[in-house]
Every structure is written in C-alpha cells, then in structure tokens.
Amino acid sequence: MPSKPPPSPAPARADQPLLHPRNRHQGRYDFAQLIAVCPQLADFMINNPHGKPSIDFANPGAVRVFNQALLKSLYGIAHWQIADGYLCPPIPGRADYLHGLADLLAGNNNGAIPKGQNVRVLDIGVGASCIYPLLGHGDYGWRFLGSDIDAAALSCAQANVHANQLDHAIELRLQAQRGQTFSGLLHADERFDLTLCNPPFHASAEEAASGSRRKWKNLGKLDPQRKLPELNFGGQNNELWCTGGEVSFIKRMIRESRGCADQVLWFSTLVSKAGNLPDIHKQLKKLAACEVRTVEMAQGNKQSRFVAWTFRDAAARQQWRTAHWSNCKQPAQQGQ
Length: 336
Description:
Layout lengths: L30 H7 L7 E3 L5 E3 L4 H16 L15 H16 L13 E5 L6 H10 L2 E6 L2 H13 L6 E5 L17 E6 L7 H14 L18 H4 L4 H15 L4 E8 L5 H10 L4 E9 L2 E9 L3 H11 L12
Parallel strand pairs: 3-4, 3-6, 4-5, 6-7
Antiparallel strand pairs: 1-2, 7-9, 8-9
C-alpha cells in the first residue's frame, strides 16, 4: 500500500535539536493518518500534559503498535512484529543514524549518496526488530546482512523480512561465537560498504534497571500508584548490557575491525555516552585508523552520536568507489 509523504514539520525553536533533513519523522505526527493504517493504535491514545494527542510511551505495547503504524504509513512496511521482551526501538533516532551513514558514503562519491543493491551494509546485533535493514532498504535500496548471537531474535527478524518479501535484500546470520563481532561471521570473499551497530550500553542488569528508573523520574512518570516496566523499550540482557559496558564492547569491536579492514570501507557504531569518546578515539589512534568521524545526533532532548572509522586512505576510498559504486542505481524510495 503506497504511503503518504511525511507530515509537514512544525516550526522549531532556533535552539531545538533537529532530526536529519531527510528523516521522515519531522514535525508532529498525524495520528488520524496513523490510526487509519493501524486502527489498533486508537486503543493507546492519550493526551499529553499540554492537551495534545500522544501515546503512552511508558507502555511497551503502545510503543510497539506505534512503530507498526509508523512503518506502515511512512515506509510501506505492512508487517512488523517483535516478541515480548525484545528491544522496541525508537524509529526516528534509528533513521537518523542511517541518514548520517548515507552522508558519509556521499562524501566519498562526489556528494551523491550511493543507492541500490550494490551497496551492502552489515548490521551487528540486528535484533528481533530488524529495524536498521528495514529502514535502510526502504530509504536507500541497500542490501543488508544482519547478525546476532540470539537465535530466537533472528527467527523473529526473519519473520519480518519474509512477511514483507524482502528476502532478496536482507540476509540474517547467527554469530555463533559470543564475544565476537566480525570473527567467525564474515566470509572471506564478502565486502561491505558500511557496518553499523547499536551496542549494549550498560555494564550490568542492575545498571540497566537503574537507568530506566532514572529516565522515568526525569520524565515525571514515576507514579507510585502505577506499575511501570522495569526497562524502557524492553530488551533482553544481551541487547542492554555486557561486561564492561559500552566502551568495552566498542573497543573490542575496533580491535576486531583491524583484522577485516580489507573487507569494509567504513565501520561505525552508536555511542550513547559522550564520556566514552576519549577512550574510543584513543583505541582508534592506537590501531592506526586512517580517518575517524564523530557525528552528533539529537531527537528532542536526547543527545546521541555515532563514530565511524576507516583503515583506507583517500586514494583507497576512491578505488573502492570505482570498483563498487560505478553501477549503483538510484531506485525510487519505498513509500514515496
């Protein structure tokens, strides 16, 4: 079912953080349109403290149905489900990461974003939602390989891929070696233009739960009469925390990336905590990355960023462009 263009952006304050200009989630949502494509969303509608229509973002079920409506309305993704307990991603922020990566590739392609199936992207920790491959293929026509250590999450992701007839564009693969990212996963003849990752950012289950309680309090939702979910947006252990937390995970990934530098143009990862950047940059300098980019992102009051690095100098990146993007097609974007 063809979808309508994104809603017109509402006027923004000069100091208000903005989504990427190509992000489809600008401005206020047209809830009438969303309910039209996903009637179940009507069951979760509330008025926010300003009297405006919204949904209860403290309810994982509401967020899940809201995502279904967004994906169907704005991206033409007719079928999307995740099992209870898995991470339910905030879609606008996920889309911003992809648009930032598209700009990164454009910088190596005379300002034009390479689109179509010749561009291949590896999503490390694709999760049950499969959200990055679905959005990235919808916006740019890229092909994806999604990896995960959780076989059940991959099964859920595969159901989403198959239900939307995207098996030709999205492949899923189990990472059988826990604690590894690239090792044991990539085939020797595979090449990727990008890798992306949303790493677990807590060091323990207790830290993850504490972070959620702090978030509810900051949002003014800590109501003693109401039972709130322990973890905002849900999430399994391996999605939310790992030994050493975010910086440890990313430093291990950087070390592994050096070993497969000939197979990837740009590596990248989200970094939720700005305080982790010095350690990450130090690790990249130690391993002689040719270029490192840190791209800031914002969604409302939430600040985030991603770090991208490459082991190819400018000449080698141009050689990659000639070898891999010379036949890139520019497909019409899904849902537009």
